[in-house]
Amino acid sequence: MIINHPLLGPRDSAEFTYMGDASLIDRPDWKNPQALTQFIDYGYMRDNPAGAHCELWYHEQGDRSFLVVTRDTTTHEIFSVELARDVARSRGRST
Amino acid sequence: MSQINRLSGGKIDRHQILNFTFDGKTYQGHPGDTLASALLANDVRLMGRSFKYHRPRGVLTAGSEEPNAIVELREGSRQEPNTRATTAELYDGLISKSQNKIGSLRFDLMAVNDRFSNFLTAGFYYKTFMWPSAFWEKFYEPIIRKAAGLGSISLKDDPDDYDRGFLHCDLLIIGAGPAGLAAALTAGRAGAQIIIADEDFSFGGRLNSERFTLGDQSGSDWTGQTVAELSSLPNVRIMARTTVLGAFDHGIFGALERVSDHLLQPAPGKPRQIFWRIYTKGSLLCAGATERPIAFENNDRPGIMLAGAMRSYANRWAVTTARKVAVFTNNDDGHRTAADLHAKGVSIAAVIDIRPDAPQSNDFEVIAGGQIINSRGRLGLKSIDIALPAGGIRQLSCGALGVSGGWNPNIHLTSHHRGRPEWLPDIAAFGPPAKGPAGLRVAGAAKGDLTTSGALNSGTEQANAWLKDLGFVPTAPDLPEAEDAPISITPFWFVKGCKRAWLDQQNDVTVKDVHLAHQENFVSVEHLKRYTTLGMATDQGKTSNMGGLAILAELTGKAIPEVGTTVFRPPYTPTAIGAFAGRDRGTAFRPTRKTPSHAWAEEQGAVFVEVGMWLRAQWFPKEGETDWRQSVDREVLATRKSVGVCDVTTLGKIDVQGADAATFLNKIYCNGFAKLAVGKTRYGLMLREDGIAMDDGTTARLAEDHFVATTTTANAVSVFRHMEFARQCLWPNLDVQLISTTEAWAQYAVAGPNARRLLQKIVDPEFDLSNEAFPFMACANITVCGGLRARLFRISFSGELAYELAVPTHYGDAMIRRLMQAGEEFDAVPYGTEALGVMRIEKGHAAGNELNGTTTALNLGMARMVSKTKDSIGSTLSERSGLKREDALKLVGLRPVNPANPVPAGSHLMSKGDPVDAAHDQGYVTSACFSPNLGHFIALAYVKSGDSRMGEILRLVSPLTGFDHEVEVVSAHFIDPEGERLRA
Amino acid sequence: MRYSGIRIIKEALTDHKGWTPAWRDAEPQAQYDYIVIGGGGHGLATAYYLARNHGAKKVAVLEKGWIGGGNVGRNTTIIRSNYLLDGNEPFYEHSLKLWEGLEQDLNYNTMVSQRGILNLIHSDAQRDAFTRRGNAMLLNGADADLLSTKTIQKRYPFLNLDNARFPIKGGLAQHRGGTVRHDAVAWGYARAADQLGVDIIQNCEVTGFRIEGGKCLGVETNRGYVAGGKIAACVAGSSSRLMGKANMRLPIESHVLQAFVSEGLKPVLPGVITFGAGHFYCSQSDKGGLVFGGDLDGYNSYAQRGNLPVLEDVCEGAMAIFPMLGRVRLLRMWGGIMDMSMDGSPIIDRTHIDGLYFNGGWCYGGFKATPASGWCYAHLLATDAPHEFARAYRFDRFEKGQMIDEKGVGNNPQLH
Asked: Do residues B351 and B333 touch, judged by C-beta distance below 8 A?
């Protein structure tokens, strides 16, 4: 597969390490009264869609960026690639 | 006489004679020949035996779709089983043998199977060999296994090299027949970067096999001229002997180039083959078409081949299989074979055309509406029986028969992404799926354009479509006038009533087998394939699948497209495993990482051990030491007595910098780092988010905004990855930067009572190493040896007064030499990973065996380290009930009750008096060693509620290695439990 | 009809006219006691044991395509019970015992070939881990044998023992391990289940569940509604998609695993051998092809096909330990969908919906589990209590922190 890195252009997926569902960005707040339940859901439950899937790829043999790749799991077609850091910020992860 | 079946003409070099052998007999051929064409020229029709019935087999095709003529090529360590004689290029000295036989090829003892074929029908083995049950393993199965399989391998290491390479282009053209060449000309002239690849050693595809003219040129002249022009274009890469074998995601294709397979052996320094990964923006499949046979009774004898192949042998290789031949066809193309062979002076017994309105000929007899209903000839065709349209049977003698049932587009690559082929009624064949791999277009016969003119035009059209998409200006090459005969075909797959009519000639699947499968409800095409093994032979059903589908269609009363097809899978043709591995074999299988002291350690005669990718010194044997334990015991004792030095460079080192570095580490480690003072080091335990211990190590604070975290050797990469995840995905706004500096610093542990005195000789005098100025867990940026920048950490894995000294990697070799020199007066020893392990077990430090991915802080006896007053990765999920069981495993020490006994790692522990079984398991030994200080074996172990069982005697069992004795649960801190030494 | 050598002779002499369908193509009835969704190995085995062990009468297996078309039809055919953890080992050992009697039980020769499985050891730490595992196997009543390098050299002289990057330092063998003719498992269970009255319904896709008041009443299919007393999902790689129709999310990700087969060769490899320092394992089929595989491609996928990096990695592993294979040709590669669970172990459990049960998350160990999975799932369905060998395979183990993590890699499904 080819991943079109937002900073570096098209790169072979072999340069990357797959890191799972991009929902891993949404780590629950440890102070929430439901934190334990939320962490169990966060850690273990997955949508696992057949179709568009937002997922993390780590450019380990490259610039070490974490990317959020939206990819069709039935065809492997890639729809978008973003820096995970930007996505995390846009989802309101501050500190 | 030599080469009695050689005709005139052909693309062979008659001036050169090549000698080769088949089954020990020497023959002659010419450059341009394949093994198959040369054998046919020498009147050898019998080349192999089939898989199950050991029926005699000859050539069926003239290409890579060959199921029958497969041989063992070469000998010794280069022996290649199952090599298709139809694609093996002849070279002088070629050695080949027939395979899958007992005795000689002519009198194969296994041919007895054919007599019993009625008992060995599809799937018979599922129904028998069950009684008596004990006989299967010892009796039936070995016989089956021995009978199965085709060729054999030498069991010797493959001596040849393979390379892997990467290529990039705008347009990849797969196949260099008329469509591919026209496309290449079109795109090449437009300036696009193109690669054109063909599996054949000679470009031209079917043009090499036909007598057609293109304009006023012969096909081969036009090909030559076109290839010459393409060669002159700098933007065109021409790859002959290159099979594009698979379409992968996003425009990546795999291709195998056979660099040296046409040679006796590779030229010095050259690989046998190169496996290319081709990255392309666009791709065009011009892979042509494969002819298919018609099934009739006993249609598998040597001499019966595809009509197009017969024509190829005559026109390209100037060979006829026999001097008198016949043709059996359902379409006009079959007549071409008769015409071409007639033109070469071969006698045509007749053309049997199933169509009552078949075209007639002045040159040979055409039996319109006739069908072949049987054949004769034990080891090769002698005659055929023809059912005449008017009734009656006519026997006709002939030495070869060309069969044409029409042509199937070679659409394999178009369905590598699981697209379902679409039925093309005009040619009664499957064409490319509507949705093939993105970016793959199809032209020529592969698309169903079976005429030369159609191929040329569609090649150009599709190339121009690509040019447009890629932003080039389309071109219109001056295509020559070419043959444009309409396709006239009457679908006909099998002669009615035939039974022992072969569909898959290699696997011996007959029409009868398909009937049986249907009768037993194996009616899905996948069931049919799997039950009968139809299409699962080395040719992957290229010539057999359609026949099976047609029969199934008739049996189920469906149309062929409703029956469906199985899915084509890569590779297009079988491909050597060595090619996919390239150079990554033997000691080059993976990179070897060497520490900065490696050369020095080699000089000391160190024994090395693989630790992940690293090679580390395991121990340093001295003269007279005959057993590794002697060396290790000596290293341990000398270190604990005076001082020892160990290379610990392989530990992961991560530089953590930034205003929020402390905040960040506070989240990464379960224990606190925010309040760590500058100049201090702290042990940190890192959890995975699921609450399981991930890694541990010390982290030093060199400045307010600068930490150096260390990881275990094994986890250096995964910990860094984990920290980057936390930094970028979880806390993107923290001001913190990470960089792995594992390779940047050479690091040495200096341990033992004299460690300080040794280091004082190395560290520049302005740095005070006294216990007061530089106490346990201190760290500092210092200089050594008169100004060399260095880092010093007072940390101890061994439990001794110890330091770790880091210098820039380039100084690593010099530093170990300097350290050992400075240590001479203290009898300093170098110690390896074994002694390191012994000392850490003596001290009760956990390492990889304890941090095994299933253990928690609680198990490690560090539950209190998990801070409840802050958020850190893993802290919440570590609260789950299952991770806090009352009888949780706890890390303890063990010592043998009888001091002579070992306490081997991997042993299990039982309570005294309990039965020895899994239900009563109390824990297991993680790490063990002989402690030279204590004079007996010691071990670390996880024991249920171990911390409250000190002094209890447990039963250690290792049925696997034969141990069963008593051990005592003790503290894991065998040496200096108060830690006085390391604070000294 | 009983299969036997005598029967074959009789049929051969009467032109094979007497062979009957291996299983009937049943029409879906309006109502069943048990509906098993998924006609793969596990589903068919479940139906068979429901009928055989529990006397279930009205059982249907609904298969959206053709039976045996999922992972039982595309795997590397290995059976073994060399597990470490208590939650797993008794289950897999039970499975191995069922394999050992399967031919007689089903009257179908699935070619259970117990020629052993050998896990190579390349480091001291690995030896410690394998020793612990081998002991766990023995303590659970399975067989295990720690082999020295010398023994290995003698038995497998073609292994790379001279210039290996990671030298072979021994191996853990399970001599009862081996391979099975995979398709035959589906057909054998189908035939045996059919003979006990189970309706096997192909080309019948479940499109939804009818759930009322927290109870599952039946399934909607492309061939109409079918009511069921108990509905048993057993669809491997389609688990998330199917259970999504009941609004359930699962602790599962679907990944692609590739496997490979070479051209047929005369016998070279006895048993199964796995490389301990890379991702590669290999055996030789009864037909002579080398069947081999390695690691997951490592990304979520339902595409049933993989890419080149894993192919190359696997072949590197092959050449690392078997340099004799250089000239052997790879014939075919394929990809299956693995339902990778969050701890690498499966789930056989009730769901929170009454009458709806789940079996899945087999990662890439599902084939060897087939008999025990069917056995234990049937037990759960019939008795509503977990079978003693499968009681650890619960949904709530993640919530409770009772993961069964053989590899120790945590909630990273792509690493299991």
From this structure: no
Nearest CA in chain A to C303: A74
Task: Tell me the C-alpha distance between A78 and A88, whole Å.
Answer: 20
Which residues of chain B lie closer than 8 angstroms to C410, CB-CB?
688-690, 692, 853
Most A CBs within 10 Å, among C253, C352, C402, to test the A interface: C253
Across C398-408, average pLDDT: 97
Name the amino acid, one letter, at B209.
S
Q: Which two tokens stand for residue B351?
A: 């053309």
- C-alpha torsion B578→C335→C122→B617, nearest 10: 80
Helix (H, G, I), strand (E, B) or coil at B410: coil
CB-nearest to B877 from A1, A39, A83 is A39
Amino acid B48: pLDDT: 97
B250 with B307, same domain? no
CB B525 within 8 A of CB B552: yes
Predicted ipTM of the assembly: 0.99
Residue contact C253–A46, C-beta within 8 A: yes
Tell whether B393 lies on the interface with A, counting CB pairs under 8 A: no
Out of A25, A35, A58, closest to residue B721 by CB: A58
Chains that touch C (3 or more CB pairs under 8 A): A, B
- With cut-offs at 50, 70 and 90, classify the pLDDT of residue A95: low
Give how far Cα B80 sits from Cα of B254, B473, B812, B931, C325, Å: 22, 47, 49, 54, 10
- Whether A27 sits inside 8 A of B730 (CB atoms) is yes
Q: Could you tell me if B267 and B308 lie in one domain?
A: no
Residues of chain A contacting B718 with CB distance shorter than 8 Å: none
Co-location of C274 and C326 in the same domain? yes
Q: Which residue of C has its CA nearest to B157?
A: C324
Q: Which residue of C has its CA nearest to B582?
A: C316
Closest residue in A to B732 (Cα–Cα)? A85
Question: B276 and B302 share a domain?
Answer: no
C330·B125 Cβ contact <8 A: no
Distance from CA of C213 to the nearest CA of B (A): 31
The pair of three-digit structure tokens given for residue B550, joined into one six-digit string: 């047609």
Domain coverage including residue C40: 24-77+183-250+343-415
C148 touches chain B (CB under 8 A): no
Q: Is residue B40 part of a domain?
A: yes
Same domain, C155 and C217: no
pLDDT in tens, B459-474: 999 999 999 999 999 9
> Is the same domain home to B58 and B101?
yes
CB contact under 8 A, C328 and B153: yes
CA distances from B558 to B92, B524, B555, B562, C85 (A): 52, 12, 8, 6, 52
| Cα–Cα nearest to A85, from A47, A56, A60, A48 | A56
The residue segments making up the domain with residue B276 are: 163-289+409-470
The answer to whether the CB atoms of A58 and B730 lie below 8 A apart is no
| Cα→Cα distances B301→B6, B60, B69, B290, B964, Å | 21, 10, 12, 20, 67
Provide the number of structural domains found in chain B.
5
Question: What average pLDDT does range B613-628 have in this prediction?
Answer: 96
Q: What structural domains and CATH numbers belong to chain A?
A: 2-90 (3.30.2270.10)
Based on the domain organization, do B402 and B506 belong to the same domain? no
Q: What CATH number has the domain bearing residue C359? A: 3.50.50.60
Same domain for B174 and B271? yes
pTM exceeding the 0.95 threshold for the entire prediction:
yes
Q: Which residues of B touch A64 (CB under 8 A)?
A: 724
CATH number of the CATH domain containing B58:
3.10.20.440
Higher-confidence position of B737 and B132: B737
Shared domain for C162 and C261, answered yes or no, is yes
Let me know whether C311 and C323 are in one domain.
Answer: yes
pLDDT above 90 (res B822): yes
Under an 8 A CB cutoff, do C253 and A21 touch?
A: yes
